[in-house]
Amino acid sequence: MEKLVECVPNFSEGRRADVIEAIVGEIRKIDGVKLLDVKPDASHNRTVVTFVGEPQAAKQAAFSACKKAAELIDMEKHQGEHPRIGATDVIPFVPVRGVTMEECVQLANELGQEIAEKLEIPVYLYEAAAKMPSRVKLPDIRKGEYEGLKQDITKPERHPDYGPPRMHPTAGATVVGARQFLIAFNINLGTSDVTIAKKIANAIREARGGYKYCRAIGVMLEDRNIAQVSINMVDYTGTPLYRVFETVKSEAARYGVNVVGSEIIGMVPLQALLDVAEFYLRLEGFERKQVFEENL
């Protein structure tokens, strides 16, 4: 069986199309890798890229893209709504076929060491690849974002896992890891009051006593003048999308606000959408094999 991993690097650039294309172009050059999706977001000033490939080919593609991002993105000038610590903010590996989580952890270590040694970018390991409990969750590593880490990286507790305890002068730092499938799910509110989005995010996220596997922040989409609850669902089988969506609607109603739309960033498993359809359509006895495309 062919070994296959998914890689979902996030780059701190969502506005300059030429820069995004140059970074993605490095991935396209690598044999054994298939580019699946490129999702730029101007308000977040961030692009999420999804590709799959044989493990070593995926690692090579991730390194090449990270190298190009370091050349083209200056974190000293970067501004955006999404938390970030570097030009290549995060690179997760996800087991897809014929690959174990342990193999993805090894891949993350290999890539982290290569980035640190060849590009002189400090690297932190997270999720299954984390070397300490305090670094399992990405928000904990990103605490203070680029500006805060720049000041704190010399503190022993914030030393990187690979590389010296100093930020790259323009590329910042990078987080590399191994994890299960994550769904980036954003819900837009009919208000320009970002404090409402932040209150709702606090109500649903796991760290504040909300839903398990749910991480959320409230941000402002300046180009649309609306507030957004930006969500990462790290295990959609443990907490389904519809449950979070319904809670956001209910919480928003408390403030006299409507949900005006939602979006999924990057790829999403079919089962996650089928779960939503089953809930809202009140489907009885529905099976995945009833999906036409699944039988082709």
UniProtKB/TrEMBL annotation:
Top EC class of this enzyme: transferase
Cross-referenced NCBIfam families: FtcD
Protein name per Swiss-Prot or TrEMBL: glutamate formimidoyltransferase
Alphabetized UniProt keyword annotations: Cytoplasm, Folate-binding, Histidine metabolism, Transferase
Pathway: Amino-acid degradation; L-histidine degradation into L-glutamate; L-glutamate from N-formimidoyl-L-glutamate (transferase route): step 1/1
Statement: the UniProt record of this protein carries the keyword Metal-binding: no
Domain Formiminotransferase N-terminal subdomain per the UniProt entry, residue ranges: 3-180
SUPFAM superfamilies: Formiminotransferase domain of formiminotransferase-cyclodeaminase
Molecular function GO labels: folic acid binding; glutamate formimidoyltransferase activity
Gene3D superfamilies: Formiminotransferase, C-terminal subdomain, Formiminotransferase, N-terminal subdomain
One example of a Gene Ontology biological process annotation: L-histidine catabolic process to glutamate and formamide
Chain coiled-coil ranges: none
Organism: Sporolituus thermophilus DSM 23256
UniProt-listed InterPro entries: Formiminotransferase_C, Formiminotransferase_C_sf, Formiminotransferase_cat, Formiminotransferase_N, Formiminotransferase_N_sf, FormiminoTrfase_cat_dom_sf, FTCD
Record domain Formiminotransferase C-terminal subdomain: where: 181-295
SMART domains: FTCD, FTCD_N
This enzyme's EC code(s): 2.1.2.5
Any Pfam family the entry gives: FTCD
PANTHER family from the UniProt entry: FORMIMINOTRANSFERASE-CYCLODEAMINASE (PTHR12234:SF8)
GO cellular component: cytoplasm
Compartments where found: Cytoplasm
Recorded superkingdom: Bacteria
